[in-house]
């Protein structure tokens, strides 16, 4: 009976890992895909590789934290309870992925474990409070830093970096020798190539950070129950994540890279750098990072900042006047004129808010990213509190 239940637990953990891959690939590589730097398939492969590196190195520490520190008595992680926790994590993440919104795996996992611990009277409120405070503060930090950059510094950054994607492929494959060698295409300049490399490297760094925190969301309950060893659990979880990155993640890549706001290369680098820095900081102090929400709020902040830009810092120092701004000016389009993406507007006009910031998509993303963890928390508490099967 135990072996059958363990098999069920592994299958549920695979389902959770699959949805983690779908939920976290968008924030990591959505900017790169939105800037046409890499394809969705390439993003999935890179996400899988660097997720595994992060999970295998630092991720095992987070597994121990979620499997022990969040509860006073790790004995609550019976095999039956572990399967139940993983089930609620998987279902909640699947709901988010179904709607094309990458939900926070850390919030969902911690919410499910907190529901179990609360039902058993074993929740460590001090640890839970520390995690919750950083989850509230960190997205606002990312939003305001990105908004300030977008509103006051982005034009200067864009002029310095000057990375507009050229028409045609970024590289071509030289097959004249025995080994095919990728080389820059005729339309690719050196600065563009450097910018593309930078945004891809930052995406890989975010994938690594995701692995350090999110592998625990798939396997911590089973490892905490003592029924599955750490190393094989990490391998199983990463394989499942890899499947999710090349399948269901395509929808969240579209949301994060194209629908939320238009992202040229400079904007992709800004949002990825800010969100990756915050995620690394939170991981360094032992907080399971709300990776998805931080990245989302950075993208929103940059788009909002660009849509409401009154004047750059350099213009303010020189005493130059900015053109008058009104609500109508921010929403009106010139007839027959194609408006440029973030940071590439003509200096004599301000882009419309609709071009840089989609309020409808933003509302859907923010709403679902809060609803999904709530579903996991309430569902787990109600089940473990009132269903006698788990015996808490």
UniProtKB/TrEMBL annotation:
Transmembrane segments: 44-63, 75-99, 132-154, 193-210, 230-249, 287-305
Subcellular localization, as worded in the UniProt entry: Membrane
Domain of life: Archaea
InterPro entries xref list: Phos_transporter (IPR001204)
Keywords associated with the record: Membrane, Phosphate transport, Transmembrane, Transmembrane helix, Transport
One Pfam family, short name: PHO4
Entry keyword Metal-binding: no
Main localization of the protein described in the UniProt heading: membrane
Protein's membrane topology: Multi-pass membrane protein
Protein function: Potential transporter for phosphate.
PANTHER family assigned: PHOSPHATE TRANSPORTER
Family statement drawn from the similarity comment of this UniProt entry: Belongs to the inorganic phosphate transporter (PiT) (TC 2.A.20) family.
Protein name: Phosphate transporter
Native source species: Haloterrigena gelatinilytica
């Amino acid at each position: 009976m135990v072996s059958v239940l363990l098999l069920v637990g592994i299958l549920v953990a695979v389902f959770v890992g699959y949805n983690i891959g779908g939920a976290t690939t968008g924030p990591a590589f959505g900017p790169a895909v939105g800037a046409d730097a890499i394809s969705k398939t390439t993003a999935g492969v890179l996400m899988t590789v660097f997720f595994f590196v992060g999970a295998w190195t630092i991720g095992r520490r987070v597994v121990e934290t979620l499997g022990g520190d969040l509860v006073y008595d790790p004995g609550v992680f019976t095999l039956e309870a572990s399967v139940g926790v993983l089930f609620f994590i998987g279902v909640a993440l699947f709901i988010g992925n179904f709607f094309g919104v990458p939900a926070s795996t850390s919030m969902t996992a911690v919410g499910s474990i907190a529901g179990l611990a609360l039902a058993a009277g074993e929740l460590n409120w001090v640890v839970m409070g520390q995690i919750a405070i950083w989850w509230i503060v960190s997205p606002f930090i990312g939003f305001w830093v990105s908004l300030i950059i977008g509103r006051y510094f982005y034009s200067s950054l864009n002029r310095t970096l000057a990375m507009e994607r050229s028409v045609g492929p970024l590289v071509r494959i030289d097959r004249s020798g025995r080994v095919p060698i990728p080389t820059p295409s005729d339309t690719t300049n050196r600065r563009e190539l450097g910018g593309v490399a930078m945004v891809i490297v930052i995406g890989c760094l975010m994938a690594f950070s995701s692995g350090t925190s999110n592998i625990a969301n798939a396997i911590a309950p089973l490892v905490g129950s003592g029924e599955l060893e750490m190393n094989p659990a990490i391998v199983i979880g990463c394989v499942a994540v890899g499947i999710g990155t090349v399948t269901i993640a395509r929808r969240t890549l579209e949301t994060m890279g194209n629908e939320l706001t238009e992202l040229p290369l400079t904007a992709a680098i800004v949002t990825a750098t800010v969100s990756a820095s915050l995620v690394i900081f939170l991981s360094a102090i032992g907080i399971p990072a709300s990776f998805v929400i931080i990245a989302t709020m950075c993208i929103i902040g940059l788009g909002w900042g660009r849509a409401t830009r009154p004047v750059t810092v350099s213009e303010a120092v020189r005493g130059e006047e900015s053109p008058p701004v009104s609500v109508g000016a921010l929403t009106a389009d010139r007839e027959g004129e194609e408006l440029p993406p973030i940071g590439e507007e003509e200096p004599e006009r301000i882009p419309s808010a609709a071009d840089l910031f989609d309020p409808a998509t933003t509302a859907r993303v923010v709403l679902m990213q809060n609803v999904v963890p709530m579903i996991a928390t309430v569902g787990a508490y109600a089940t473990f509190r009132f269903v006698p099967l788990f015996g808490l």
